[in-house]
Amino acid sequence: MSSVKVMDQEQTTQPAFQLMMSLLLIMGVLLASLNFAHAAGADTALEKRAHDGNPQAQFDLGNVYLNAQGSLRDVNKALQWLTYAANNQYPKAQQTLAVLYFHGWHVPENALTAKYWFERAAQNGVAEAGYYLQKPEFSTFTTMNGTGGPVALHIGIYGKVKPAR
Question: Rounded to whole angstroms, how far apart are CA atoms 66 and 76?
């Protein structure tokens, strides 16, 4: 009879566990790479539609830049695309800009700019904008209703910038 030596269970499971963890790590890196490539392709298509003047794409692209994590966040690009969409009569963009300036999220708090965008959003049927316009912060001044309205309002910086939630 031959004798068969059985290895310790601890010796057999530890290398198998390490191999399994290595495979999971490799699979995770591959999946992350595929997701990144897919997202980059989607962003390219979104950017093309935004550059072609599609207000919803401009709004969506602005939100991508605004809500990105870490170094991918670009508040200046977000404001640029949201402003394009708002000037193209996209009510959600007008409301978003108004709320950002009203609360000072990502931008300097600016009640005059907020009121301007709330008025435009309300004119385009955003009910929430009417609620904001009734706030006492807006009773002390009127916005410009001329050709230079939004440009003039975005030049100055007033108040403090609050961190995003």
Answer: 9
